[in-house]
Amino acid sequence: MSMRTEKIAKAPQKLESAPDKQGSLKQNGLSIIKFCLHTHGKTGSYFLKDHLLLFVKSGIYTVRFGDQEYTVRSNEMVFLHKSIRIDYEKSGEPGSEFKLDYMMFFLNENILEEFVRFSGYKPMYPVNELVPVSIITVSPFTQAYIESLKPYFESPDEVSDGLVRLKFMELLYHLADSNNHFLLELLQPGHNKNSNISKIMEDNFTNPVSISDLAYLSGRSLSTFKRDFQAMYHTSPLKWIRNRRLNEAKKLLLETPLTVTEVCFTTGFENIAHFSKVFKLQFGLPPSEFRLQSHTREDEPGQGEPLS
Fold it and tell me: What is the pTM (predicted TM-score) of this model?
């Protein structure tokens, strides 16, 4: 999959208006979204606001995180940890007119805490390192559970909020029975306690993250994250991200052939007009004029010649 220059969609919020959505069940931050489309290779990027369990009923869904690639095929499931950016490629099977049929289960922290209290499940040993992406075993019980959701999507308005929550709990029970290590990772408290703030900021400054997302990634409360960040950088996280994005945009304008629109989206800005405005405030010229003037200076006689 090639580098994306489009907006990074924040999931699950942006998925509710996706054209290939067949239906959804929602309750207090929990979402089950069903998709079905015909595609020979559709690519894009997500920033995951919540934990995601993705089940492929038919077709192929490829996920890339960092330098790792994971291929999820028919009747397979992948777990994606919250607060990470992923790139994806969707493809249907050739023998079915390239049909891709899949479901996305978004889990927030509340349902996990409720599951722990309700089930009495306790991790038996600590997990030393978080695995952001992992393939999950799909047992016959889990497959039967997936099939049981069909009538719910056919009449979503008749499904109560409590029943949606109960179906999420049922899914977690199935996974607990067949994937013990997965739940150990998911339920392990403090897995990223006091993580390196500078690395988190460098890894995520182009992603559509909130300050709460960054605090979570660092293993800190929001107030502690802001205090530690201020002590380290002597500015606010929002100002730091804006300046870091602008400096990266300046570099891309000078060193790459990317269009201004591509530079805007690549560096994490979501609006061209806003990007041009803040770029001009920072560097004195709008992006297109800045690039043109920089290239004009380079082409002037005597520019770039060694001093005698």
Answer: 0.76
